[in-house]
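We read letters as residues; the integers encode the fold. Take this protein.
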Amino acid sequence: FTVVSVMARVLGFQVGIDTDEDGTPNGNKTGWTGAEWDGERYVAVTGEDGRKITLIDGREVPCVRGWYKHLGIRAEAGCSWEAAREGVVARCTGMAAALAQLGVLSAAEYVEAVDTATLSMVAYYGAAFPLGRRACERIDKAKRGGLAQLGHAGRRAARWLMHTAAPNGLGLAVTYAYAAAALVTEVDRAMQC
């Protein structure tokens, strides 16, 4: 916060700190969070022990309470990405279901649309935090379910063969590979700075 605070002052900006309606800083936009290892697990640092972070102009930066929004996803203050993962899974599975409910897509069109929609989201959020294999498998299951809902069951389905040559499997991309690549790429980019 010191560097950001100094650079903001040099450039003529002011770091904004959101407040509740009564004027109390809430940590929703500008806030800090931390965790300490207690020998068994990470325990959230709440700031209730007197720890403070202040900007160079003397304003106190509030501690995040519960969660904050990061890239439009709820990030938990206790060093857990579970709520964020659930948000990404919900968005991706919702997109897969919505595309399947259109009911007019061929197998190839559905595969292209659902992979474009879900993998774009996975690449975006996967660069910010690890999605994990279980979350990606839930997304893949929803994508396969959408394909089945449209009547496409894979390489032996007559309807698939009407539209395109049958690929190996169902033709869907494996989400976990894209999530892992996004995270590795972001770490590599950060190390190049």
